[in-house]
Amino acid sequence: MNAPKPSSVTATIDFDKDGIQHGFLKLPYSRNESAWGTIMIPIACIRNGHGTTALLIGANHGDEYEGPIALQKLALTLSPDNIKGTVIIVPALNFPAFMAGTRISPIDYGNMNRVFPGRPDGTITEKIADYFQRFVLPKSDYILDIHAGGKTLDFIPFAAAHVLENKVQQAKCVAAMKAFNAPYSMMMLEIDNVGMLDTAAEEMGKVFVSTELGGGGSATRKSIAIAHTGIQNFLIHAGILSGKIKPHKTIQLDMPDKDCFITCISSGLFEPCFDLGERVSVDDVVGRVYDAERTGIQPVEYKSRMNGILTARHYPGLIKTGDCVSVLAVEVT
Ligand code: ZN
Predict the structure, then answer these.
(1) Could you give the CA distance from residue 94 to residue 326 in angstroms, rounded to a whole number?
(2) 295 CA to middle of ligand 1, Å?
(3) Domain count, the chain
(4) What are the tens digits of pLDDT across the range 63-114?
C-alpha cells in the first residue's frame, strides 16, 4: 500500500499538549509579492487532558463574520481550567478569502465548502481542505461550522443539521443543533452538498452542526451574541465546558423539498416583499425585479410555492438571473 501523501500544511501548535496555544497552520505559497511566502492561518488549541475534542470553525466563506468575531473572543477567554478535553479554534478557515473580504479565495477562486475532501497536490483551497480532511476532522468529535449569508444573502439566525442515513448519528447532530439554541433550528436541505465540509464530517460519523446567523457581509450585536451563546452551549453539550444550557426556546424549521428555493430568472432592481421571519403563503409575491434601465415596464414577480417562513433573502439592491431570490422553510409543530 502506498504511504499517504504528506500535506504541505504544518501546524505550529501541538494538538496533544495541555494548556493554551495560539499559533498558525502554515501553507507555503510562492508568488510575485513573496517568493518564499507562506499563508499563515490562525489557530488556537485549548486542552485539558484526555476527553472530547471540539473543532470550531469560522469564515469557511470569507465574508461571513459572526464566526470569526465570536471565535476571536473565545480564544481570548476560554481557559483550560474550565474545560475537559480539547477545543480547536479556527476563526477563518478560508483565510485568503477572509483577508480579501470575499466568499471564495482570491488566489484560486476556491469555494472551501465545495472542495472537500481537497487534494494534497491541488490548489491552495484544496490543500487547506485536504489538511482538515486528513489531519483535523479525524481527531475531532464535535464540529461546529459557523456560517452566515455573506455579502449576497441574509438569513434568520439558525443552527442546522442534515437528514442522515445513520439515524443514531442524525439524532446526535440534532441534539447538538438544539443545544446551540439559536432562535431557529433547521433540518437543512442543501442545494448542492457535494464537496461540503458538512458532508466530509458527517461521512466520518462526526457530530456536526452548521449555522446561518445573519448576512449582508457584516455582523450585528444580536447575531454575534447568538454565536457567542451558541458556542458556549455547544461546548457544554459536548461535555467539554461546565455549565448549564438555558431551556430551549428554539423554533424548529424544516426544508421539505426544492420548492423552498426561489431562483431569479431576470435581472434588475430587487424589491423584497417580505422581511426575514415573516410568514408567507402559497402564491404570495416574495419579491419583484424591475428593469433597472427604463421606466414603464411591469416588474417580474416571484411567488412562493409553499406556506412557510421567509428564511433567507437576496441581500444587495440589484439581482441577476440565477441568483437566489429567497428561501422558505416550514415551522415544525
Ligand atoms: Zn457560508
Answers:
(1) 26
(2) 36
(3) 2
(4) 999 999 999 999 999 999 999 999 999 999 999 999 999 999 999 999 999 9
